[in-house]
Amino acid sequence: MNKSRKPVSKPAFKMEKGDIFYKIIVSNPVLFELSPHTNTIITFIVICRATGTFSIVNVMKTAQRGIGISRSLQNKNGVSAKNIDKEIDRIQKDFTQGVRAKTNCKIEWAVLNLSRITDKTEQLERIKKWGKLKVC
Length: 136
Hints:
About 25% of the residues lie in helices and about 40% in strands. The protein has two helices and six strands, in the order E-E-E-E-E-H-E-H. The chain has helices at about 85-105, 120-130; strands spanning about 20-25, 30, 35-50, 55-65, 65-80, 110-115. The longest helix has 20 residues, at about 85-105. The radius of gyration is 16 Å and the shape is globular. The protein starts with 19 loop residues before the first strand and ends in a 6-residue tail after the last helix.
């Protein structure tokens, strides 16, 4: 039996030497009233770059009846350490309000704070144990 494979999509982000994860924020499924079998998961991956600035990667993955049908990516790079937490809060608030206004779906966020863990192996173990990062 020859099973077809889904095409490999472009990676959501690239970690360079010295980069570490800062936070990962994942929404509950956003449901669509007009398409009851479709939902979108919103994920923000915040990376502390070796340069001392931060990148925020937004991945929105939409699935229909459990099968991924689209994935969109947005990046915000060069955020300063002084502004990163305010920027994360602002983006999360804006998405919460925007989704609520368009779909009447309440968003709840799961947050994995990795800001105090600098060992990449430990970060990856915590991400795997957390089990909510499924968009990349």
